[in-house]
Amino acid sequence: MKITANNPNRKSWLEVADNSDFPIQNIPFGVFITKDDIITIGTRIGDFAIDLGALHQLGYFKDIPLTDDIFLQDSLNDFIADGRKTWRLVRNKIADLFDVTANGLRDQADHKDKVIFRMEDVEMQLPVTVGDYTDFYASKEHATNVGTLFRDPENALLPNWLHIPIGYHGRSSSIIPSGTPIRRPYGQSRPAEGSNTPTFGPSRLLDFELEMAFITTDSNHLGERIPIEEAEEYIFGMVLFNDWSARDIQGWEYQPLGPFLGKNFASTISPWIVTLDALEPFRTDNPEQVNEPLPYLKVDGQKSYDIKLQVGIQPEGKEETVVANSNFKYMYWTMVQQLAHHTVNGCNVRSGDMMGSGTISGPTKDSYGSMLELSWRGQNPIPMNDGSERKFINDNDTVIMRAHCDNDKVRIGFGDCTGKVLPAIEFKK
Ligand code: MN
């Protein structure tokens, strides 16, 4: 089925600023609460939130086979489970309804009142109920940098890394939508020089991880696998993702089993899921792989995406400083390889599962995706526009991540993924 929604020549009758992340070619999916306290599934064009539940009730999707309440929900899980054909039909239909050449909705003032809201009048929620969340470790530059800093510069990349997309199972309960503040976490860290007792208290090395994540649909039954050629069918879309990390807690706890409390205290995602369909024009060559991957991981065709990424830090009441510019295309392991690998043992993937890319670090020092790497574990503090400097993230700093694709015709973006760090709660022990 053709993705007619992507036509770069389309314009909407809704006003869209030139540099908007959300032109009519984007049509992402999210969940929001209106001023009247109604929760609904929606999309966004420019700075307008569009209530898909109301549109459906008014009969605008009548030629698409959808259950009556598919959009009157507090998560996209059921809609995503309907599969790629439905996603395409709905995106194409929305594009037609809001196209500048369309009559119908645009001429129905009473319908527009029920369907269209200003973004400042709605409150974004998590787009999906994430059942399972997996985080990969798929940037070669990041894995090399972290291996150098945490373990051994001579053998920074462990021998398995070039053969398998390394990952771990994260925790979904602490995934939060952009704008939700986070608390500086407490934890144990390595004993000070000459001591046998670990230190304990608020993390002193709080960090961000610049990542993207993909959201899956129901894919395989337990015991079956997703062949790599089909993997794309099961990816609904992507969000921007800040995998907050406490480096001191992580450094003490991570051996032998891997990340735990240094990671699971908060994970921030952008609230609009940009579909893989919308990203279609931005496919790019896959990174060259050092070893020939095993057959189940062998990729055919362009499975990487050219998505420009940026991270800024804004101290309270001060100007923001951009600390990194990276790109999703630097990922060594592509999403389809990750999904094929994840299910090769028969592990079943469900609608609304979230797979983090791992920190996306580029080849240059200003393209690293964490403060650990940018400041080289604090050795090279980053100068800030307000005259201060940062090795890691301070209390009351807001970390702002942005992602967008563009070509000479269209810009597709993700909106911001932000989170402010609040001081640790005071505890007696
Ligand atoms: Mn991570």
Explain how this protein is built:
A hairpin with a 5-residue loop joins strand 23 (382-383) and strand 24 (389-390). Helix content is 16%, strand content 25%. The strands form seven sheets. Strands 6, 7, 8, 13, 14, 16, 17 and 22 form an eight-stranded mixed beta sheet that branches. Strands 9, 20, 21, 25, 26 and 27 form a six-stranded mixed beta sheet that branches. Strands 4-3-2-1-5 form a five-stranded antiparallel beta sheet. 45% of the residues are buried. The model has no long low-confidence stretch (mean pLDDT 97). With 429 residues, it is an alpha+beta fold. The chain has two domains: 4-124, Roll (SH3 type barrels); 133-422, Alpha-Beta Complex (Fumarylacetoacetate hydrolase, domain 2). Bound molecules: manganese (II) ion.
Give the SSE layout.
Layout: E1 30-33, E2 39-45, E3 48-51, H1 52-57, H2 77-81, H3 84-97, H4 109-115, E4 116-118, E5 123-124, E6 133-136, H5 140-150, E7 167-169, E8 175-177, E9 182-183, E10 186-189, E11 199-202, E12 206-207, E13 210-216, E14 235-242, E15 245-246, H6 247-253, E16 267-269, E17 274-275, H7 276-279, E18 283-284, E19 304-305, E20 308-314, E21 321-327, H8 335-343, E22 354-356, H9 371-374, E23 382-383, E24 389-390, E25 398-406, E26 411-413, E27 417-422
Parallel strand pairs: 6-22, 8-16, 9-27
Antiparallel strand pairs: 1-2, 1-5, 2-3, 3-4, 6-7, 10-11, 12-15, 13-14, 13-22, 14-16, 14-17, 18-19, 20-21, 20-25, 23-24, 25-26, 25-27
This protein binds manganese (II) ion (MN).
**What's the overall geometry?**
globular
Secondary-structure content class: alpha+beta
CATH class (first level) name of the largest domain: Alpha Beta
Low-confidence stretches: none
Q: Give Rg in angstroms.
A: 22 Å
User: Largest sheet at a glance?
Assistant: 8 strands, mixed
CATH fold-level assignment of the largest domain: Fumarylacetoacetate hydrolase, domain 2
Count of alpha and pi helical runs: 9
Strand proportion, as a percent range, falls in 15-25%
**Mean pLDDT over all positions:** 97
| Strand segment tally | 27
Q: CATH-wise, what's the superfamily of the largest domain?
A: Fumarylacetoacetase-like, C-terminal domain
Bound small molecules, by name, code or SMILES, are: manganese (II) ion
Question: What is the first-to-last residue Cα distance?
Answer: 60 Å
Whole-number total of structural domains: 2
